[in-house]
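Predict the 3D structure for this chain.
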Amino acid sequence: MKRASTGFEFVIAVTLFLIAFWYIFLQVSEMFTSEPIREDTRQPIIQFYSGYIIKNPGEPPNWETNPSDFGLAYYGNGRTHLNIVDKKKLDYSNSTDCEALKPGVLTGMSFGFKVTSQYGEWACNNPPKKGVIIKRFIYIYFENNSYKPGVLEAWAA
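Done. Predicted structure below.
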């Protein structure tokens, strides 16, 4: 003869069923609502380019307006000074449309940078609300042969 199930066993079985049902529901609904995982390719590009502009003086190396190749590195005494940016080049960048300075590798992305120090701030485009931002510590060369510390922030979106 079979024994009838009690109310307690029934409550436990229904509770376990509801927990399992809720867990499966959450797993399935997450599959339909979450975005697919994509690798952000902007990070290595902006990492490379932010290093490039502070290690490359541009073309011509002592440009003051309209460079054919954009770079901010100071060029003096016949050589490029790495991680030292020229204040004259910053002044030009601050007063021009940065899209004209953007290299081909950044096609399809908005690009910009900002250099800050206690001696001034120079910007080329505004930073995006969402995007990749890289910070680098640099020195700024002023015309009186002085070097002042600063920070370069470069971004792409």
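The CA atoms of residues 55 and 116 lie 18 Å apart.
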